[in-house]
Amino acid sequence: MNGESGQIFNHEELYKALRGVEDLMDILLTPYFLLGKTAEDVKNNRQLEGEGIDVGIRNTALTQYVYDILKTNYGFSKEDVDNGFTFKVGEVPVRIKVYKRNYYFFKYPDTAVYEFGSYQIPNPFDAYWKSRFIVR
């Protein structure tokens, strides 16, 4: 599958996927924050690059409404959603991680203005960036 085998997408493809995430989260009425390379690029106001879009949500945001919309429109079961899930916008994979632990850098996210939107990113970002591989 594209993006999972090391395929690198260009800025236009990734930005379209990022806007797709924004649209989905608006429908779900769910706050989210950017993660990984996506968050780094947005924080530094660089063109997006990478293998996909990475987003996090807190498990407390998972309401019955969220489960129902994701099941009806995307075919995800409650178990799929609870463990994080991936969907595609075009060919770009969007990886949604669900956090059960209260990491301090997600408690008061920072807002980064990027292109025509504003996005939540971990705060302090440097602490998140150093520990991003151990955060589950």
Order of helices and strands: HEHEHHEEHEEH
The level-1 CATH class? Alpha Beta
Number of structural domains: 1
The computed structural class is: alpha+beta
Mean pLDDT, as a whole number?
A: 92
* Global shape: globular
In total, how many beta strands?
Answer: 6
Main sheet: strand order? 1-2-4-3
- Tell me the number of helical segments per DSSP (H or I, 4 or more residues long): 6
- Measured by DSSP, the beta-strand proportion falls in 15-25%
CATH domain topology: Beta Polymerase, domain 2
Give the helix level as a range of percent.
Answer: 25-40%
**Biggest sheet architecture:** 4 strands, mixed
Short structural summary:
The protein has 136 residues and is of the alpha+beta class. Helix content is 39%, strand content 23%.
Task: Provide the descriptors you would attach to this structure in a database record.
about 140 residues; alpha+beta; Beta Polymerase, domain 2; four-stranded mixed beta sheet; two-stranded antiparallel sheet; about 25% strand
Provide structural commentary.
This protein has helices at residues 11-28, 36-43, 64-74, 78-82, 104-107, 125-131; strands spanning 33-34, 53-58, 85-89, 92-99, 110-114, 117-121. 39% of the residues lie in helices and 23% in strands. The strands form 2 sheets. A 4-stranded mixed sheet has the order 1-2-4-3. The mean pLDDT is 92. The chain has 6 helices and 6 strands. The longest helix is centred in the N-terminal third of the chain and has 18 residues, at 11-28.
